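User: Please predict structures.

Assistant: First:
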Amino acid sequence: MNKEPIYHSNIFWHFCGKDKTEEEAFKILCEILKEKCLKRSLPDNSDPFEEPIKNHNGINTPTWALQYVCFADIPFAFLKHHIELYGNVGLGFKKEFIIEQGGQPVLYAPFFEKNDAQKVYPSSISSIIERWGKEWAEITQKYQLNSPENRDLGWKIQSLRKYIKQFSFKDDNCSYYEREWRVINAFRFEENDISVLIFPKRFSKYFTDLYPNISNTISELILT
């Protein structure tokens, strides 16, 4: 029998409460359950770029604003620190369901410090993909490669960049420890796909009245 290590979780988590009150986070959770969809807010159309990643010279390079959803592969016993950062309102799905929806771990790329600046090695995966995207953009512009196929390849390169997460072990809350997975595009589900819901106990009666079909037979309610 294949025994999985204790530092791996069968449930992947998505929390709603970073920089929000419990009331705000619980409202977001209810909206997610109503729509049966996880998605992130994108910048308006006037700004198609966001979330820069650093190139090998330590210079920020923008990425396209693409839809994606994040999950954390953290065993429940070790969720305390993550909850302190992202709030105590969230939901969890089995890892198999995340994988079926196209989820995969992010590509972590560490910074190193040089001349008081954060840089990444030229041979790192983030540097290679960054250069690949830049070179492809230059080629398509030079040779006017504007066919749907070429635009699609550009989108795929940008999607690949969305799986890069840069970090430094010197950060107070190092993102490497979040063990993040991502799904590109919105994440849709049914109520019986949910494995766990987490929210403060004081919301339990309101939640039961609002979602009578989400019971312990479908999902486990962990009331903090």
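Second:
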Amino acid sequence: MRRQGASLPNKLATAIQKFFASFFQKRSPFFLLLLCAAAPGDATVTLTTQPGSALETIASQLSADDLKQSRASGDAPVLLVGSARLAADKAGPAALFVQVQSAAFCGSAGCSTSVYIRRGGTWTKILDSISGPIKVSPRIHGGMHDLLVHSHDRFVWNGTAYADTLPVPTGAKP
């Protein structure tokens, strides 16, 4: 939440987000998504449990198959959600980051996170199955901020989704 060199302590920023989230939660889930979105270039996208929130409800719907599969294998999955504004013009919708934590979806590289944006009334997956801490970069491609995973793996906007910029190693099968 930095603006021109000023910053709020993390606890204060979190308290403000929680206040607005609880106040507007029942009024409009999309307004809530905008309020909770991190500003581009700030910090790691924070994924948290938000039981009963509008964001959690949307994330549950988007991850219904994964949650069902996890429960069927005897796991008690935990759903984490976060949001960040990715459009360079700051007028576009905030993205929804969704992570299902369970043995079926987590491995040695961590748990898998998917990213969605709302287009024309429908949630569209724009990045699938990434693991690790995610940051919104100040660098822009195609009108959207780049995403950094583990601070070094850069994903850039190709007009419809995010694509990894790491080259495929020589001899590797695509």
